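Researcher: Last one for today. Full complex below.
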Amino acid sequence: MRVVFRNARLIDPEAGEVRDGALLVEDGAIAALGDAEPAGAEIVDCGGLCLAPGIVDIGVKVSEPGERHKESFRSAGAAAARGGVTTMVTRPDTEPAIDTPETLEFVRRRANEAAPVRVMPMAALTKGRAGREMVEIGFLQDAGAVAFTDCDRVVENTKVFSRALTYARSLGALVIGHPQEPGLSAGAAATSGKFASLKGLPAVSPMAERLGLDRDLGLVEMTGAAYHADQVTTARGLERLARAKAAGLDVTAGISIHHLTLNEFDVGDYRTFFKVKPPLRSETDRVAAVEAVATGLIDVISSMHTPQSEEEKRRPFEEAASGAVALETLLPAALRLHHAGAVDLPGLFRALALNPARRLGLPNGRLAAGAPADLVLFDPDAPFVLDRWALASKSKNTPFDGARMQGRVTGTWVGGKRVFG
Amino acid sequence: MALRGPHLLGIEPLAPGEITAILDLAETYVTLNRQPDKHGDALAGLTQINMFFEASTRTQASFEIAGKRLGADVMNMGVAASSVKKGETLIDTAMTLNAMHPDLLVVRHPHSGAVNLLAEKVTCSVLNAGDGRHEHPTQALLDALTIRRAKGRLHRLTVAICGDIAHSRVARSNILLLGRMESRVRLVGPPTLIPAGAAEWGVEVTDRMEEGLDGADVVMMLRLQKERMDGGFIPSEREYYHRFGLDAEKLALAKPDAIVMHPGPMNRGVEIDGTLADDINRSVIQDQVEMGVAVRMAAMDLLARARKARPREVMA
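Model: Here's the assembly. Have a good evening.
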């Protein structure tokens, strides 16, 4: 089975370049780049649009098991396909948490049945995400867990966390932390400052992220573990991250698309669709984060896709649930950075596809012979107004409802098979 | 001048002219309230529901009296004892009440922004009677009326707001109102009780009473909101009183004719000396309570007029 993608603008994050050309896919993998068109091959005319490696999204919450009314593998998979996300790296913060090989097996089975894209499950780091005992890291790795994280719950007991890191290191397992000082950030719904104070919202200093990073990076230095910070969103945190990388620690960092494209003022009159974790930051911090993506200090951009029901969002801001759906809006929102001239297209796909795949030891995320043919075809300039009710996710809690966006996915392929478009 | 919006959710959306309009009308109600026959009919035939999701004696009584004096049918809903405890959401409670066609909904809620949320879902006029740490507009208006009557103006005054600014919606509404009327505001309190970023609100901030009270025309004391504190904002009440409690000695730093205000209820001996609070030559605390009724009558009257002037919304 051969497919030729002809007349494409190839976005190559590895080489850091954009070039016009064609790409040959054979048996689900990229076979060659070039203009060869073997006889009998299916032809996909890309019409001069951008062809890039499919997005590898670390930190997707699917809400299954436990809250299937919010999102299932089928609906999340459909949203991912439409958004150009070819690998969902799913979060274990479900009900119950994914903390045993048995629950992980359930996720894998459901995912294979229902989702048209690849699903790589993560497992919790501690049992029940309670921060007391580490999970069976070895068994879970064997069962297919690609990383270990308690998601937005910080393992408060430093001794427990240091042991988990030590144990994970011996197995070469990646630990994903949520850098936050839990005492300072308890109860917070916004980032402290003039705006949150005027609105009377309980708020956390951006310093809480730096303090959390300080602890985690200290433990990484002590244990030698491989560590990824799920979201580093403040200038202060980025400073600390840069020092850790310069010191040679095995450390990477991510950020959600929302922290790159929105700031604290977007909350406006208590708009709960803009309530995320950590809370949206100041414009100064947002600009620093965009800069860090451009330089590569921040390795990974993710959707932090978090479905929430209308009821849980239609509450007073302090009580409302956190999180936003973003599988479908990730690429168009990320293209805002491209249109603003802040990050070029190969740079974006380095953070959306290449780096996350590399960090998890996956062969995806590249436009190179031998890599899986996970591809997204998109028109970076096509304008549209987002209508949240048109999203494929079961939950419609996006902060971009009614927003003008530019950039549309026209086709998505997973292992050479068309899953959207 | 009428009010532009259908609700009174805060001082923030009000123009100076709207503030003045409320205060001017309130003056006539001060006069009415001092008559033996206190009845007006501005709200006759209208239904007013007081919905307090947070315990309140003073504000609720004030709104109730204000409504009754203007002829409204007033109903108090003690929400603490109602279906909210059975898990009903704020929106559902609001929609249920809305279906009974009230004209004025007076709402207090422990969470900032909750009253704004509710106002989006109902078709009647909503008055914010205090939401979390956000706003308490009628308190700021009654404070303004009290100040205007004592000082003859609202502009070019120096007002020191002292104490627990962080937890105070009264402070936020007063800062907005006094700023809008071109007075100078100073915030005085221990740094743990000054909200982050307050210095960017166009006010002066200090943690020394001597500095804050120096030359002030108005000294507004705030209640130490012990119920909103989860511990550790101040070392002790006695140290707080020593450094930030208002007594005659500290008041001597303000202008000789400076007035003393407090939104109540007071913690005597914590933020204010009891004798000073009762000193009729300096304290206008009782006047504030009186002005509260008049201001609430005026606000509800203006909202009702604005409602009559608008074509009725088609009910869904």
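The mean pLDDT of chain A is 97. Chain A has one domain: 54-364.
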